[in-house]
Amino acid sequence: MDEQLYAIPVNDAFNADCECPVCLMYRSLEKAAVEFTLGPSYMEDDVRMETNRTGFCPEHVKLMYEQQNRLGLALMLHTHTQNVIKEAEKMAKKGRTKAGGLFKKSEGSAVGEYMRSLGSSCYICNRINNTFDRYIDTIFYLYKKEESFRNAYKSSKGFCCTHYGLLYEAAPKYLSGAELDEFTKITDKLFIENMKRVCDDIEWYTDKFDYRNADAPWKNSKDAVVRTVLKLNSAEIKL
Question: What is the reported pLDDT for 102?
Fold first, then answer.
C-alpha cells in the first residue's frame, strides 16, 4: 500500500520530541520542496512552465530568497514576470463585464479573476500538499494497523491548533464506531492537556519579568514563546 511508503517519516515525526509532529512533517516537506525548486530542477522545462503559471506564495518566496541561490530565484521570477505581463495584457483587453439580472448589478473582470488566482497559487505549496495528504492517510493507516504507532501517538505532545482541527475533521473518513470514539477522546486529551502545559510555561515566562522572580529558576519556560507560537499559529520561529 502507498501508506507503507510514508511510514518511516510519519513514525519518525511521532517519535520526535516536538510540540506538533504534523508540523514537523510539513516543515520537512517544505524544506525538501524549496531545495528541489532551487536545485537543478529550475532549469527543466516542465518545472519552469509550472512555476511560470503558478508563481509562489509570500511565505515560500521569502524562504527561497533566504536560501542564497539568488540567480536561480531571479531566473524563475523573470520568466514568471514575463508570463504575468502576457496574461495581464490578454485579460485587460477583455475589460469589465457586467453580471446579474434586473435587480442585481455587479461588475466582474478577467483581470480581477486572474490576479486572485495568482494570489492563491504556489508551486511549492502544491508540491508539499501532494505528499502531505499522503502523510495524513498514513497517520490513520498506522493508527489502525500498528500498536507501536498508537502508543507513539498517545505519548506525543499533542498538536498545533491547525493540525488538531485537521485530524479531528479527517478522522471519520478513516475510522468509525468505537475506534473513532477512542481516537477522538485521545486526540482531544492530547491537545487540551498539552495546550495547558504550554500555557503554564508561558505564564511563568511572563512572571519571570517580575522583579520578585528575578532569582527564581526558568523551569521549562525559556522557549515558551517559540512553543506557544507553534501551538497557536503553526509557525516556526527561532530563539
Answer: 47
d(CA 56, CA 140): 31
CA atoms within a 13 Å half-sphere pointing along the CA-CB vector of 123: 27
98 — pLDDT class (breaks 50, 70, 90):
low
- How far apart (Å, rounded) are the C-alpha atoms in residues 61 and 65? 6
pLDDT at 10: 97
Q: What is the 3-state secondary structure (H, E, C) of the chain?
A: CHHHHCHHHHHHHHHCCCCCHHHHHHHHHHHHHHHHHHCHHHHCHHHHHHHHHHCCCHHHHHHHHHCCCHHHHHHHHHHHHHHHHHHHHHHHHHCEEEECCCCCCEEEEHHHHHHHHHHCCCHHHHHHHHHHHHHHHHHHHHHHHCHHHHHHHHHCCCCCHHHHHHHHHHHHHHCCHHHHHHHHHHHHHHHHHHHHHHHHHHHHHHHCCCHHHCCCCCCCCCCHHHHHHHHHHCCCCCC
From the centroid of its chain, how far is CA 133? Answer: 11
Q: What is the pTM of this model?
A: 0.86
Which H or E element spans position 146?
none
